[in-house]
Amino acid sequence: MYSTAQPNSESISSGEAAILEAAEVLFAEKGFDAVSIRAIAGKADVCKANVFHHFGSKEGLYLAVLRSAVTESKQILEELEGASGNQQERLRQFAGRHLRSILGHPHVSRLILREALEGGSERGKELAEKIVGDNFSQLVDLCRAGQKSGELRPELDPALVATLMVAANVFFFEAASVMRHIPEIKFYDDPQAYSAGVMDILLNGMANKKGER
Amino acid sequence: MYSTAQPNSESISSGEAAILEAAEVLFAEKGFDAVSIRAIAGKADVCKANVFHHFGSKEGLYLAVLRSAVTESKQILEELEGASGNQQERLRQFAGRHLRSILGHPHVSRLILREALEGGSERGKELAEKIVGDNFSQLVDLCRAGQKSGELRPELDPALVATLMVAANVFFFEAASVMRHIPEIKFYDDPQAYSAGVMDILLNGMANKKGER
DNA sequence: TAACTGACTGACCGATCGGTCAGTCAGTTT
DNA sequence: AAACTGACTGACCGATCGGTCAGTCAGTTA
Predict the structure, then answer these.
(1) How far is A2 from chain B (nearest CA, A)?
(2) CB-strand contact A38/D, under 7 Å
(3) Contacts from A79-83 at CB under 8 Å and sequence distance 24+?
(4) pTM of this prediction?
(5) B213 within a domain of the structure (yes/no)
(6) Is A89 helix (H, G, I), strand (E, B) or coil?
(7) What is the CATH number of the domain that holds B53?
(8) Distance from residue B35 (CA) to nucleotide C8 (C1'), in Å?
(9) Domain coverage including residue B54
(10) B142 touches strand C (CB under 7 A)
(11) How far is the CA of A72 from the C1' of D18 (A)?
């Protein structure tokens, strides 16, 4: 196999990477069908035929984008592991970092949300599972640990708790443009305050208070 | 103006209504750009040109669909008003009914979620506000009433509480196809159990316990 | 009856779509 | 040098897109 020169810089547009990046942005913003190969090639400053040379078809390109988004997403979520303090503090940290990572990678987030919306048992949904799967289990384990340590009520379903945490963060991202126009909502541009408020309620609701049965 | 015969049945496909209905389903399932006028006309059993006769353009049709979805959505949400019991019980009922109405009208829900995802300050986002706006305020008021009655902690942001409730329900709908494949999640096909569990945590987290400061 | 309406249709249009193909070119490999 | 590679391009293709148009037709109005 012939190796390209590949100057010692990473990911900087050497054709294929540029296409992938342009496609990620456009697919995330407009969706699969609303984006033409010509538009992607144009944004990547590349000939249209070159896109097919690298990715075979539009669907091939989309899958490649999705694959790279999933990989990136996994890496992001894996960075959420390290946490300090007691179990409650860990959950709090996890939630805050999770929200920050979602907001910090809007293209990836949007892409995955779109894929989830499309639903069905078709394209990429299994990929969406793959993203969530492992890391969701990790969060569930975190909740379970909180129950074992006695900090959280043992009768709660840890998966439901984890779902609620994820739901709160995902919703903050996807509804941001709507929330901005609802007068009652003051926290629309302060994700950390939002996360803190959410976790205040959740942890208080899950806390195992000694006098309680 | 000439009045069409309009036999005494409602909404049953007399051309325009059939187009609107077909368009709602297809737009919700695949998105604006993925659906052709031909496909809509075909599903409505109508000539393609007839679609333009009634709605002018594809965007006109889409806006009409969105408008009808908004109207329908408002009607649905307005039915959520009546609730009995104390404030906590009212919130519990609201959440359960809200989730049920989302799940019971998947096309409308999907359409609105799609519109929110598209974001920006463009098309229909203001419509999305119009849907949420009033009814969200209503939910916030419900939370405030709970605080006034002393059942809920007064220092909580009622808008944040309301957001959390909506987030939990919306997420259940949009992530349903993913949750189904996550082994830890047992409640994926039991929305009422989910809603009950969520509200158990939330209300417990918001409850104003006498001994607490 | 005659004029007119809006619902509806089939045939057609230019533009754009995803995709193909023959070929150029810089850099390896032998 | 010759053979070969993969990255890349411009020109082209059939299909389908959104949209138009002239015209048919049932029912209303006058």
Answers:
(1) 40
(2) no
(3) A80/A135, A81/A138
(4) 0.88
(5) no
(6) helix
(7) 1.10.10.60
(8) 22
(9) 14-66
(10) no
(11) 38
